[in-house]
Amino acid sequence: MKLSFRRFDLALTHSWAIATDLSAGKVGGKDIYPVVFVELQDADGRCGIGEGSPSSQYHENWETVFRFLRQVDPDRLSFDDVAGGMEYLASLPGTSMPALCAVNLALLDGAAKAAGRPLHGFLGLDFPAEGRISSFTIGLDTPEMIERKVHEASRYPVLKMKLGSPADRENLAALRRAAPGKTVRVDANAAWKSKEEALERIEWLASDGAIEFVEQPMPASTPLSDLVWLRERSPLPLVGDESYQGAADVDFCSQAYHGVNVKLVKTGGVSAGKAALEAARSKGLKTMLGCMIESSVLISAAAHLASLTDWLDLDGNVLITNDPYRGVANVDGRLGFGSGGSRPGIGVVAAGA
Questions:
Q1: Which domains does the chain have, with CATH numbers?
Q2: In the Cβ-directed half-sphere of 300, how many Cα atoms lie within 13 Å?
Q3: Residue 342's pLDDT is what?
Q4: Distance of CA 79 to CAs 43, 75, 113, 242, 248, Å?
Q5: Which of 1, 81, 95, 216 holds its CA 20 to 30 A away from the CA of 22?
């Protein structure tokens, strides 16, 4: 097996910031977001592509991904034994979840292509995301820019708003000037430090009348007793993101939240992401597929798991201007593979193809 990987800088349409950037003392947002593309090719000419989107929120960057990938022996990987390949990767030191994700996607892409089946069919799942609505995310910014961004996103039926700045109330007011009554999902990115503060903020949000749920109101390190206290009193559903790294967290999150957000980069790929969704559903939790800033490789891979979800937040590829691949399309907030839905593997091709 031949393994190759490269850095690619995704260019953001607007500067991007979330609450964890503010808490880390970072000024301003990101204009580019480096990701890593991985390609695998075996002696029979079969190939697969994957992507890792590392986040400083999890102490990862393109260099940590490269560092992990450089120690991989590609001869220990095979499209005919994806599980065995992942067991080998898990045995290596210095685990990088975005790197695991990228290799897992490449292995599954190649395996599904070899079987002549789209990824969801290869995994035994129903047809993925055709016609499903994805939210469109509005990052932290000034009220003036929030209003501008929301006007630009008028074609999207559901918005996801980042909170966790001193201007939260002004920003929501700006959003409502541009989109009165539109359904909004709120993501605090663990910005509220006490259960009392979180409850006060959530009660304020509930008075808006069109907030669907609140994602990760408090840090993942918050004691379970505080999260249970908040869950019992919250007038809005609570969704765990940073608290739900994978299936191993399901018992904790089933007590603390009403739902969970699964991201392929966070869990380590499609295989672990599928397991995380299935574990959550077995405990009666609502499920969402989310993303980082990503190209169509990761977004399309996630879309193949859409039948396991209640909500989708797969907008990473429409927040950028230079996506090097085409896969699942996002037309006015509705996802679909169109004629490419039966394409074997993840279902992506180079943007110019």
A1: 2-116 (3.30.390.10), 136-350 (3.20.20.120)
A2: 32
A3: 77
A4: 11, 11, 9, 31, 26
A5: 95
